[in-house]
Amino acid sequence: MIDRSGNETKNPKSDIASLSINFADVKGLQIRLFGVNLDEMQKLRGGEIFIQGLLRMTGKGPLIFNSALSDFTGRVEPQYSGVPGQVAGEKIQRAIQAALDEPDAIEEAAKIVASTQPIAELLQAHGITPSQLIRDLHAPSTLAAGNTALAIARKSVVAEVRHAAKNGTEQGPDEPARYNVDTHLIAAVKAQKETLSPDQRKALNAIRLELNRKSGVRILLNGDVGTGKTLVFLLAIAAVARTSRNPVAVVVPSDLVARQIHDQAQARFPDLKPGLIVSGAAAPDTHSKMLIGTQAMFSSPAIKKLEALVIDEQHKFSVEQRQMLAHAQTHVIEASATPIPRSLALAIFDGWKQIKLINGPVPKQIRSCIATPANRSGVVGLVRQHLKAGKKIIFLYHRVTGAGASVKDAGQRLSEHFPGLVSILHGKLKPTDKQKALTAFATGEQPIIVASTAVEVGVDVPDIGLMVVSNADRFGVAQLHQLRGRLARNGGAADFVMMVDKELKGDTRERLQALCCHADGFSLAERDMEIRGFGDVLGEFQSGKFIGTFKLSRLDVADFIPEK
């Protein structure tokens, strides 16, 4: 017997037994039994011991986990690992056994399984009945039968997710397109002063084909900052508005971005009378065919039946909010540099059309790293290096006020070290003060700006060489990548530093490390999906695990990607 520290003991109250068992092909198999005392173990001397557990190979050799003394039954007995922090495996096992003891339990469960279309089709393809599947899952006659049932249950959950993505994403039944946008789209492209990049042309053509194919298309437009996705979706919905004569809309996360896109739309498509819907703005023209706004659009009386809707930086909006502005036949384009796991899943599962903008107009190299307070001197060195090179620098903080890691406190400290070179920008400033700070930063009069997330989107300054994000672990992957996109807009090299105040562990470190390893948004989103899960495509969850008929199935992204 051993104590909790792993030391041998003669204490009869000790409740841990450590055994070493030698087999012909496995030497020194180590087993620990919890919940037994010395007296109970003494009674087992000289007799047969049956141990139940999970065998795993580790760096220390073979170990049996979750081991327990067991009665020999001669049956294959499934083990339930449970859900950490929610329900223990033993509790599930007792509940399953109680259900199996009910005379009609299997048949009742079989009816539920049979009523689920994607699962019923899958079982038919495998030649197995719903009742046999349930029986083989929870009371298999052989190991082979149990393993086959587990594989089918896993495939069933995948089938449910795919089915939900195709049929449960606010889409109506497939209907052919009521019009062709080609004439107006070609005219809109020719009217632009700039020439579209090859990637922009390819993306716009893919959108065109979808719009001409059916009503109510669903498109995930992925393009990193600087690839020109704004112009692509503006051209697309302008063609829709001119062809259908119905209004279209763009929703963005901030007033600053809404005003910038509105200015673009007015210059490019004056005939559509673009209207601006933001807090405090005058009501748009009643004849406006293109509306650009923020969350204010969700309660605006100006919003009627939309023919097309663009959600820019869709990780900022909930599923419910997006549904408020779109009906089944509304064309919906969700645009983002890093799509949230739920939307990325919809693209992978064939529910949405995935369109990528990969290459920007200029090559750039952004070095990303994680730093702790111990690395502060290295960060100061980067600041001086970029200032000497004539580059601009952003320090970004999660909080506006408060001691330490806040915009106002850091702004004061940096102003003491770099007098006259520091400006401050945050959401609580008056619009005129915001513009003044941005102008001083953009012109280089004050090349260092200390800011809140007001700079996340819409700050289009071409020569930012360094961004330092304080408490980076409090930001999401999509948000950090969006911030990183502010760097080196005119090409060249830049540095992105994610400051944390402690050593990170688990998923948090994996997420920040993913930013260091992935430069483009889509591969980063795929990695984020692997870490966080792909979300409940039927509900409001932006990440997490999909819960289908077989609720204890644990799936990975690899389950949904065809083998090459």
Automatic annotation (TrEMBL):
Span of domain Helicase C-terminal: 382-535
InterPro entries documented for this protein: DEAD/DEAH_box_helicase_dom, Helicase_ATP-bd, Helicase_C-like, P-loop_NTPase, RecG/Mfd
Domain Helicase ATP-binding: 210-357
Gene Ontology BP terms: DNA repair
GO molecular function: ATP binding; DNA binding; DNA helicase activity; hydrolase activity
PROSITE patterns per record: HELICASE_ATP_BIND_1, HELICASE_CTER
Keywords: ATP-binding, DNA damage, DNA repair, DNA-binding, Helicase, Hydrolase, Nucleotide-binding
SUPFAM superfamilies in the cross-refs: P-loop containing nucleoside triphosphate hydrolases
Protein name per UniProt: ATP-dependent DNA helicase RecG
Species whose genome carries this gene: Giesbergeria anulus
